[in-house]
Amino acid sequence: MVEKNGKLWKELKEDLSKPSHWWVEAYYSIYRLILKIEDFPKEIKWLFQRAKRGYADCDVWNLSHYLSSVIAGSVKRLKKIQHGLPTVIFTEGKLEEQARKEWDYILDGIITAFESLRDIDEFSDTELFDAGKTPEAMGKIEENAQEGMQLFVKYFRDLWD
Predict the structure, then answer these.
(1) DSSP for residue 123
(2) Contact 155, 86 (CB under 8 A)
(3) Which of 52, 92, 122, 139 yields a CA-CA distance of 20 to 30 A from 18?
(4) pLDDT tens digits, 142-158
(5) pTM of the complete model
(6) For residue 18, what is the enclosing H or E element?
């Protein structure tokens, strides 16, 4: 699951990162800078909201994108600092090394799924069309993301350190 999804997603990112005209890049760079300056007071407000309640008003606008980012980052951190393994991973005769590899595979599946969902949200349909991505390829990425989300649901109570 992870290899297939990772390969498809890497191909999509490469297609979308091909350079466009310099003046288009310059225009959008200036436009984004102006938006950043205009949004600065809101960013401060959202910073305090996140500190107080864990999310901001802007996060609720596209909650799936926000949660995908949080979950992917959190599970990456869990994988990096984990000290133990959930007991559900151990079956009869399984060694700790085998269980750790299986748990890492599960965590990788969850990470890939939520990163894919987050990144898909960032691309518009026009960008996907321009990159030549077929509905079948996007369907495969979505299918793999669904598999990772099922792993997340199945092992939700085991995501601890």
Answers:
(1) S
(2) yes
(3) 139
(4) 888 899 999 999 999 99
(5) 0.71
(6) none
